[in-house]
Amino acid sequence: INFFYFVVVLLFSMCFNHPALLIISLVGAVVYTLVLLGVRSSIKFNLVGMLPMLFLVALINPLFNHGGVTILGYWPTGNTMTLESIVDGAVMAIMFIEVIVWFACCNTIMTSDKFICLFERVIPALSLILSMVLCFVPKFKAQMHIITQVQRCIGRDIGSVNVWQRARNAINILSIMVTWALENAIDTADSMKARGYGLKGRTSFSIFRFDSRDRLVGGIMLALFIIVSAGIFGGLAYASYNPIIKYSAFTPLSISCYALYLVFCLMPVIVDLAEAIKWKKMKESATNIRNEEQPWQYSTSKI
């Protein structure tokens, strides 16, 4: 269910540039990061990391793309600055940012054990590579910290005054890291081969089960996907920004399609919110039952 969800939202975010779909996808991605990362981390990620990149990408396109019929002025180089190029740059920037944010959410949810569970029988080698890639970045950062501390203890700190010595120490640390990464990959591959990974008939343990809740959420997602896809391919999400700005009009039918797409993007948030409400009610119910069953405690300290 998670894999299907992220494949759909990423494909829609990368392939369709209608303003309504762009805004819905961006809002869904930002709201999901709030749920996954928390308010502080999400604000830091979206505002500090993504917002400057958004303005940078939006500015680059009008500098090099001068197509369009609505001339707003001229750059110092003499090239025209058009409204269409500015809008096109903003659209490209939003698409770029929302894909990065969705991938950040996907990286948080789709862990290595989920990839192995999905693809170990179909493409075992690729599923192992994907799981190793997902685990590589945090392990690489932790090992980099350890090696840097060890090199600092023997006088090979990268913060030395001499620039030449600093470069040599940095290259030495990088060499150690590359060697460790290659050895770790070989050890992992040999270990999985010794366990019979990928052999025909091999069984494997998995904590994931496809139960009634998965069927319910999966059926809702599939229905939303079919309806939204029919509306999009029916011409409700057409948009073009060069040489003139044209996009499909907002009609009751198109607004309904966009609303269903918003529901699809917010499905994980809705599920998490429903689970949080259910869990809160269960805790309150358990607390009330415990208070009712607790016997009266009489204090004898004043007797």
Describe the structure.
Strand 3 and strand 4 (246-247) form a beta hairpin. Helix content is 73%, strand content 4%. The protein is globular and about 65 Å long. The strands form two sheets. It has a two-stranded antiparallel ribbon with strand order 1-2. The chain has a two-stranded antiparallel sheet with strand order 3-4. It is mostly helical. Helix 2 runs parallel beside helix 4.
Core attributes:
303 residues, two-stranded antiparallel ribbon, 10 helices, globular, 2 domains
Please specify the SSE layout and strand pairing.
Layout: H1 2-15, H2 19-37, H3 39-64, E1 71-74, E2 80-82, H4 83-109, H5 112-119, H6 124-153, H7 163-194, H8 212-236, E3 239-240, E4 246-247, H9 252-265, H10 267-293
Antiparallel strand pairs: 1-2, 3-4
Helix pairs in contact: 1-4, 2-3, 2-4, 2-9, 3-4, 5-6, 6-7, 8-9
